[in-house]
Design a protein that fits this description.
Blueprint: H1 23-36, H2 43-50, H3 54-66, E1 70-73, E2 77-80, H4 82-104, H5 110-119, H6 127-136
Antiparallel strand pairs: 1-2
Length: about 160
């Protein structure tokens, strides 16, 4: 078996591509964002929002920390890192654009739009789809409930 050799000090190692955000990771990011925005989300609150056990939340917080999406302090909770916050806003944007489309263009009731979202998974669509949908809708600033839709540039939605 050949011996592994060390790379020369000036060798460049290509950056590892970030894997796509799974629907479960996305659900946690959105729950943390919804719970506190830029503050610290307690484990119990995230567990209640997602209808999972606090132990499951603790395990996921550790995973999210390892992926660089949250800062996690045991017994305190998690807060989104800059990257985690950006991902959460991207997912919130997709969800709110789709809900706006379902209500305003397809005539769904708000309740039915939410049911449709759940049936199709928590974060359907690609970024390209979200941008085309935003264009089709005239780049709405708010969803049918009046909640702000985050900008494509990552600008945070401001709740009023």
């Amino acid at each position: 078996m050949p011996r592994a050799t060390a790379l020369p000090p000036d060798a460049r190692i290509p950056a590892v591509e970030r894997r796509p955000i799974s629907s479960s990771v996305g659900a946690y990011l959105e729950a943390i964002w919804a719970a506190v925005g830029t503050g610290c989300a307690p484990t119990k609150e995230v567990a209640a929002r997602l209808s999972v056990s606090p132990a499951s939340v603790t395990n996921m917080f550790a995973r999210l920390r390892a992926d660089g999406l949250v800062e996690y302090e045991r017994y305190r909770g998690a807060s989104l890192t800059r990257r985690g916050h950006k991902e959460a806003l991207r997912l919130v944007r997709r969800r709110r654009l789709i809900e706006t489309f379902l209500v305003e263009r397809l005539g769904y009731s708000w309740r039915d739009a939410q049911k449709e979202q759940r049936r199709n998974g928590p974060f359907p669509s690609s970024e390209r789809f979200a941008e085309r949908l935003a264009e089709f809708l005239g780049h709405p600033e708010r969803d049918p409930h009046g909640r702000p839709i985050p900008g494509a540039d990552g600008a945070p939605a401001r709740e009023t």
